[in-house]
Amino acid sequence: MKYSHDFPEKKTAGGLDALSETSSKLGFEIVDIAGFLDEIEQESHGQLGALGDLQVGAARIIDGNTGIVQTVEAVSAATQETLDRVQNSFAFVRESGQQSQQVAEWVQDLTARTQSVQETVEAMRKDNAQIASIAAQVNILAINAKIEAGRAGAAGRGFAVVAEAINDLSRKTERTATGIKENIDTLFEWIQQLREETAAVSKSAGKVLEQAQDTDSSLTEIERNVQNTGDGTRRVLDEAQAVKQATDNFGPALQRIATSVETSATGIHRAHERVENLINSSERLVQGTVALGGQSADGRFIEYVRGTARRIGALFDEALANGQIAQHALFDRSYRQVPGTDPQQVVTGFTALTDRLLPPHLEAALEFDPRVAFCAAVDVNGYLPTHNKKFSHPQSKDPVWNTANCRHRRIFDDRVGLKAGRNSEPFLLQVYRRDMGGGNFAMMKDLSAPIHVQGRHWGGLRMGLSLG
User: Fold this and answer.
1) For residues 428 and 283, what is the distance between their CA atoms, to the nearest angstrom?
2) Using an 8 Å Cβ cutoff, are 202 and 108 in contact?
3) For residue range 126-145, what is the model confidence (pLDDT) as tens digits?
4) What angle separates helix 359-368 from helix 299-321, to the nearest 10 degrees?
5) Model pTM score
6) Measured in whole angstroms, how far is the alpha carbon of residue 179 from the centre of its chain?
7) pLDDT winner (highest mean) among 16-30, 67-81, 302-316, 422-436
8) Burial letters for 61-89: b for 16+ Cβ neighbours within 10 Å, e otherwise?
9) What whole-number distance in Å separates Cα of residue 459 and Cα of residue 275?
């Protein structure tokens, strides 16, 4: 009976030990998955934010492109209307130009004809002068003949009559030639004046013809430019309408992508919450197996942390008793920022006390086992006033370096930090990824035990254990 009784006890103890070890490993795996899900969730939130910005930008592009299309349509219509008016104006101007050109050509032709008329009148003047000269000579001959007929007496009477008639005709011819000369002179003066005037008008007409050619070329160029403007506006309108069609299709597609990403983000968040529940379950499983007598590989660390937490609680009791600190200061939750710190550091009513009392106990923990990475006390809000010396350097100008080396006087209100400070069970074993700064993480075990002062929960003592 003794052996049969002892055997089940050993078997049960061995099973609890194995269950405790398995629970610890399970917690490690679940936390690793949780860290992965956390990264994905953060990325999905970033993607949602980027998609939101993209949707806003796309909406602005769509609105802007709609405005462009409307503007280009208005410009295209105005350009076409302008082109029609310009073409009508060109037709009128060209018609006027053609008429002006015809008038100018007629004036130039008139100048040429005036020159010809002037030459004809000049020839008439010369002929009339010749006629006057001949009439004068005939008159002289008639006078001479009349004189000779008078000398001839009766024999010359008939000849005298003829001479008198010739003389009378020559006088009439001379008077007529004189009248014709006066008329020709007057006509010549008129023609000369007309010729001078038509010569001046002809010069103006020549300029009109030149300007008409230049105007026609300019009008043709203007028409071509307006036509090109209209063609360009129509091409812009075609492109803008094509862009509008593309953006109209882009909006719904982007919305579908955003909906899909949002659905995925929601699923990831739910999965993350479920994994967090699994982490809590695995932690309770470890606590339960140890409470039932299972021997975990972390057993010696659990006892060490619990003992040190009790000693720190006793130190706080003693400090209250001898007046080193008032109770309201020891439980002060007003955190005052330290100016110029990055990451932000804070101090409170008990910071000076922990700086005096805790360093020997915290440094001793580092000597307990090589796997102990840190040891520090935190209040119920995760505020860590005093850290190990290697993590308590003065801050530099590099926030990344500060994150890894200046971890004192900071509030660690993440899941692990808050649970460590608020846990009231005998101990809490958590597995987590420790942020070392610069995007670097280290898998750690966080073993904590509550610190009580005069029966009141002050916070907890955290011990970080390296894995591996």
Assistant:
1) 7
2) yes
3) 777 777 777 777 778 777 87
4) 170
5) 0.52
6) 97
7) 302-316
8) bbeebeebbeebeebbeebeeebeebeee
9) 26
Distance of CA 90 to the CA centre of its chain: 43
User: Is residue 21 pLDDT above 70, yes or no?
Assistant: no
Domain annotation for the chain: domains and CATH numbers? 15-288 (1.10.287.950), 298-468 (3.30.450.20)
Residues 266-315: pLDDT tens digits?
766 666 566 566 665 655 665 555 555 555 678 899 999 999 999 999 99
Of residues 35 and 459, the one with the higher pLDDT is 459
Place of tokens 């505020």: 383
Q: Give 126-133 contacts, CB < 8 A, sequence gap 24+.
A: 128/177, 128/180, 128/181, 128/184, 129/177, 129/181, 131/173, 131/177, 131/180, 132/173, 132/174, 132/177, 132/178, 132/181
Q: Is the distance from CB of 389 to CB of 365 less than 8 angstroms?
A: no
Tell me how crowded residue 119 is: count the other CB atoms within 10 A of its CB: 11
Two structure tokens written together for 189: 């003066």
106-111 LR contacts (CB < 8 Å, sep 24+): 107/198, 107/201, 107/202, 107/204, 107/205, 108/202, 108/205, 108/206, 110/198, 110/202, 111/195, 111/198, 111/199, 111/201, 111/202
| Amino acid sitting at position 361 | H
Contact status, residue 32 vs residue 207, Cβ threshold 8 Å: no
- Specify the amino acid at residue 191: I
- C-alpha separations of 155 from 56, 82, 142, 168 in Å: 140, 102, 17, 21
Q: In what order do the strands lie in the sheet with 428-437?
A: 372-379, 456-466, 440-453, 428-437
Question: CB–CB of 191/117 below 8 Å?
Answer: yes
Q: Which residues contact 27 (CB under 8 A, 6 or more apart)?
A: 279, 282, 283, 286, 429, 430, 431
Cα angle 32, 305, 38; round to 5: 20
Considering only CA atoms, which of 242, 243, 229, 244 is closest in space to residue 76? 229
What does the block give as tokens for 246? 């593309």
Percentage, residues of the chain above pLDDT 70: 64
Identify whether 8 is preceded by a cis peptide bond (ω within 30 of 0).
no
